[in-house]
Amino acid sequence: MEPEVDYEDNDPRAWRNVCGETRLLGELLTEWREKFESLDWVASSEKVWNEEMNAENHAQLQRIIREHGWPHDFRREECKEALLAWDEEHQDDLYGA
Asked: Which structural domain, as residue segments, surrounds residue 94?
C-alpha cells in the first residue's frame, strides 16, 4: 500500500514519506507464514535462512526438515537435534571460523 499523501516533517506519520511500501500487518504475517511453511525460509539454531543462502545448504536444511515429517507429521525435537548437528558440522562454512 503506497502512501497517498506526503506528510509534513513535523507530522508523526512523516516516516511514511521515506519508508517505501507500507503494508497491512495481516498481509505481512501471512507472507512470512507462507515463506516458512513452504521452507523458502528455514530457521536453524543461529539464523533464518532464505533463498539468498547457498542453494546446496538450503536444500540440505529443507531435506532434514522434510525427513522429520514436515509439514503434517512434524517431529519437532528430533528435527531440532538434526538441525543442531547439521549446524555444528557446517560451522566453518556458515559462520566463517
From this structure: 40-97
